[in-house]
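Below: protein 1.
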Amino acid sequence: MTSEAGILHLLSVLRHNFAQRGLIPDEAGAEALRISALLGELPPLSDVFIRNDHPATRHLSNALAVAGGPTAELLAAIRPVAHDLPWRYSYEQRDDAPSLGESIAYAEIIGPLAPYRTTIFCLGLTLIAPASLYPLHRHPAVELYYVLSGTASWRLNNHDRDLPPGEFVLHPSLAAHAMRTRREPLLAAYTWSGEDIHTPSVYVE
């Protein structure tokens, strides 16, 4: 079982990073600022954090080994608690990619079913193994990603772009998006907000 102090430190560093991104006056900045404000009043802790060995977590050590760079402080805050987060994969199995559930995982820290329980927004981490495709998917929630480790190809509105650590990307409600990793794992913080944060993601291809 992990220390709540470690989780609170991680959330504090995340809040600072979102606040800094909020200084840029664009849609992603506005969403980051909104999330930063929500992180100022955390919901009560409703559950414990227990060590989790989802298959994708075998890539955590490589994802967290990066030294320096724009996300160094945040990666340092994640290391002590990384394996104690509620890593899981919730999509139905795909016949064309039966091992996808071993390559992708997310750990929700704040949300309707998370240890910090709220129906207002979600916040967590996403981990994707090297040489993996997170196929096109969509959801009603507005999603903001913050790339922490690994440069992957991100697809939104049929446009692909490489995003290195330190970049933010906003996915509007119901916008189809995908990520493809290469030789390194991808670790990113994500948030969900909007009128519907309960309906899960669905694959669209």
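Below: protein 2.
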Amino acid sequence: MRVFLTGASGYVGTAVLDAFARAGHQVTGLVRNSEKASQVASRGGTPLIGDLCVPASYRQAAEGHDAFIHAGFDSARAVECDRLAIETLLAAARAGAPGRAGVLIYTSGIWVLGHTPQPAAEDAPLNSAAIVSFRPAHEQMVLSASGNGLRTIVVRPGIVYGGSRGIVGDMFRNAVNGLIRIIGTGDNHWPTVYDRDLAALYLRLALHADASGVFHANDEGDERVNDIAAAIVGQAPPTPDVRRVGLDEAQAQLGAYALALALDQVVRSPRARALGWAPTLSSIGSNAARLFEEWRSDSAGR
């Protein structure tokens, strides 16, 4: 399978690239510069230097692939850039040879659900956090394009962990530096997913001819932020301090991002599990020692 992947050097994109390359598929990875291109090449991908927000820099190169995975994100121009990328990838997917089945996978996230203290599956109503208020419309762009030989899929990952990047990676780094900050009381639940398990779902979805629609990617560990922090604290001598920051103070510093981190979410992934997807890790807390070693090793390599 020939795969076109945006964000190929990003957190999710790197894991996806690894999974597809290990499985013997050819991956063209869109990156911003030569340094990131070298990273993609070293992992078995074929780098393409371009700008996610400038379709002309990758539109033609994207055509002719079998699968299109949008894992890229430009935080400075998030909404417009994401829309342009979707439109460009859909056009490239439709430009394939007649009768050739293709698939486009769009990376969204569980924050589109808003507060979900009761278990929420893929059919749950959306009540997006402000920081991702654009995502439901973009999800619908993708889903409504399905048909005429093209499968379209929306993946909503939980908070990704593994390695040195992401929200949980930052918590390990903060712990080593002596202070973890928790927004609010910390009694809220975070849906989470191991980066390699998430990538395994992308691979399964790309290869499963009947897979389409929305899929949650969550280990269903139902961990509270306090529990995650306690597990991380236990791996970082000397014992770091834990400070709880009021929501108003956090919002003044971090804006809408703080509100998203304070969401209380319990999420289920029945559609993914129905395809045979089974996460190898089911929580951060019970794997904290392993994850700390991963974090340390990955941090040393950066």
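The mean pLDDT is 95.
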